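Cross-check.
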Amino acid sequence: MPRIRVLVGTRKGAFILTSDAARSDWQVSGPHFGGWEIFHIAGSPANPDRLYASQTSSWFGQVIQRSDDGGATWNPVGNDFAYVGDPGTHLYYDGTAKPWAFKRVWHLEPSPTDPDTVYAGVEDAALFRSTDGGLTWQELPALREQQGAKWMPGAGGMCLHTILLDPVNPARMYVAISAAGAFRSDDGGASWKPVNRGLHSQYIPDPQAEVGHCVHRIAMHPARPETLFMQKHWDVMRSDDAGDSWFEISGNLPSDFGFAMAVHAHEPDTVYVVPILSDSEHYPPEGKLRVYRSKAGGNAWEALTDGLPQQHCYVNVLRDAMAVDSLDPCGVYFGTTGGQVYVSPDAGDHWQAIVRDLPAVLSVSVQTLP
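Predicted model, tokenized:
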């Protein structure tokens, strides 16, 4: 009988939620690293006992934690996130040049085949890789060397927050950076190209520039990795050619601004988003918490509300705080800045709260265990 493990990163620690395949009764473990910000906690697809967590504080700095027993115990591993060579400069809000400065690890992406290989997306935006279980880290410098001098931070900083590894082509990967855009490598990170054609951003000097777009999230289905979905700073987008071009699929959404996005585990054309009102009002339209689902790959969206608060709700769902499991029917999960973690064990038709009073949720990831 399969089991589910939900890994939750919050402003004040990590929590591990476990259940059987029914996904109705849950056990809660935590807080792990209580009081620390856990920007992301992720499990290795190659070894269900191997977990990685990004632990950070303004006082003590950045720590990568690793567990080899499913989160029962943890050990700090390497934290040598040093930019390669002279990091140079990037642009800032007022157009002046600022030196790169490492602040934190936003996202951890374990390899699907090797538990000792894991990628890290950091702020200021850069991509790192470890091949020894997090003990040492090396930057993949070509990403910044090719376009980085043109990048400038958005309101939330300049973070590399999304890493997608193509399950069909091991040499291909994607990253998304706020506020630079999406980038693709076809040679394992040795070189990169911007993949932002078709994006339009009114708040930058050139609305159709090659770089400078604030991408909030990109997602793919492993069975069809050439199709990508994007939630950006305004607009929900789709690409059917591995990011070479994009077209809008916002359709009938009440707002096309948001952060979170996920794709159904078994249906490549079923995608989920959580709209919020605007770039300054980070809460659901009309105070109604609604997940929107499209079964047609975009444009036609339905509101999923059963079990979610439909009045006086002013939480947000952040970019790394939505995930799916691989059971059938597919389970969908998300966490809010109000400390709630919700599950739908039937692909979004009905929702229930697993927990309600955690610290603000920064990330949610899911493991399906044997």
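The first helix runs from residue 142 to 147. The chain is about 0% helix and 45% strand. Passed to J.P. for a second look.
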